[in-house]
Specification:
Layout lengths: L8 H26 L8 H12 L8 H11 L20 E12 L6 E5 L8 E6 L18 E5 L19 E14 L9 E6 L11 H5 L7 E2 L5 E4 L39 E6 L6 E14 L15 H11 L9 H13 L11 H10 L5
Antiparallel strand pairs: 1-10, 2-3, 2-9, 3-4, 5-8, 5-10, 6-7, 6-9
Length: 374
């Protein structure tokens, strides 16, 4: 049996009217879309668009600048041995790493030191260190003024002084330091392990003869490190502006030097060290091991170039960002590997506008240049 429902005439007409109204609304929407109304964008495209709008431009070091940062903050890593200074003086150069190792011992008052002077040559005095209980001083002392202080050459360097003649030779070379570091660690017995290790880094050309622990620690950036068996480190930090001397008659650390640096002075000539460690509070005769790493660029002034030259690169925004993060810090102490990661991550958090050592026009050039710089 089938049941049927019959609606009143008025109700049937109302239902038809509602259906017709919905169809008309749908047609109006379709016509509106055809006239140029913005259609809905797919969800995925919307998300990408929002991310693009919200993205903040961040800084990225080029490969050459990354190696340069590693040579400065972790010079004991062999990867930095192919680094160059990524400034505008990007001539082909021989990039090399020299390593010199030795030992030192504390004097009879439990005081000792090791100081180094950056040199690309193996036949000039570049290192002085106390050698045991015959040293009776309590301050940094020049070789000719005290017994118990020994001078060494940088035997790991691949060149000799005659190859750098100030440009007067037809086959003269010029050099500059890319990065370098000195590190020490205690070698004595656990029973005698005592005292502290104070790193020194040149920030002005001063004679450090007569410097003691109190004078070195008066600088707020200098740490005091308890004597231990792990390495304590201090690294090179360039002085001066890029290709501009920082004082009258002084070559900036970023420039090529056509001459070798004068060897350590003796007597009144003093000690003008680049890096060093001063140790006090120890036991007389306590032994320490030291290692000195230097990363160089060597280029020809005229005539034949050094063997093994490779291309160099320019990255002005990169070197500016590195100077920004390093000039207010002293990466010295205990963990050069962590120092490199810390500064690399800090630079990645930068926006290009954060750099104070480079003009905005240079940043624009870098953006146009593409992936080499950013």
């Amino acid at each position: 049996m089938q049941a049927s429902i019959s609606l009143p005439p008025n109700n049937r007409q109302s239902q038809k009217g509602r259906l017709a109204g919905k169809k008309n609304q749908k047609k109006k929407k379709q016509r509106k879309g055809k006239k140029g109304a913005k259609p809905k964008t797919p969800t995925k495209a919307n998300a990408n668009y929002r991310r693009a709008v919200a993205r903040v431009e961040k800084f990225k070091l080029s490969q050459c600048s990354t190696l340069y940062l590693k040579a400065l903050t972790d010079p004991f890593n062999l990867e930095g041995g192919v680094a160059c200074i990524p400034d505008e003086f990007d001539i082909p150069s021989f990039k090399c790493l020299s390593v010199t190792r030795g030992t030192m011992a504390l004097g009879n008052l439990g005081v000792g030191f090791v100081c180094v002077k950056h040199q690309p040559t193996s036949d000039e005095t570049a290192i002085i260190a106390t050698n045991g209980v015959t040293f009776t001083g309590t301050t940094v002392t020049a070789v000719a003024l005290a017994n118990g202080v020994t001078a060494y050459s940088n035997v790991g360097a691949p060149f000799v002084a005659s190859q750098f003649s100030g440009g007067s030779s037809d086959n003269a070379y010029m050099w500059r330091l890319v990065g370098g570091g000195l590190r020490i660690r205690y070698l004595g017995t656990e029973l005698n392990r005592s005292g502290r290790e104070i790193p020194y880094r040149k920030n002005t050309l001063v004679n450090i003869v007569g410097f003691n622990a109190a004078q070195l620690l008066s600088r707020p950036e200098v740490p005091s490190i308890a004597t231990r068996r792990e390495w304590a480190t201090v690294t090179h930090l360039p002085l001066g502006s890029v290709n501009i001397g920082s004082a009258a008659g002084q070559i900036s650390d970023y420039e090529y030097n056509p001459e070798t640096v004068a060897a350590f002075g003796t007597g009144a000539a003093g000690v003008f060290a680049d890096l060093g460690f001063f140790i006090d509070g120890g036991v007389a005769g306590n032994a320490y091991e030291w290692e000195w790493y230097q990363h160089y660029e060597i280029a020809a002034i005229r005539g034949a170039s050094p063997a093994g030259i490779t291309p160099s690169h320019a990255d002005l925004p990169g070197i500016s960002a590195i100077r920004n993060v390093l000039e207010s810090n002293m990466p010295s102490g205990e963990t050069p590997e962590s120092d490199f990661q810390y500064y690399a991550n800090l630079i990645r958090s930068y926006a290009p506008a954060d750099m104070s050592h480079v003009l905005s026009e240079v940043v624009k050039v870098g953006k146009v240049a593409g992936p080499l710089l950013f």
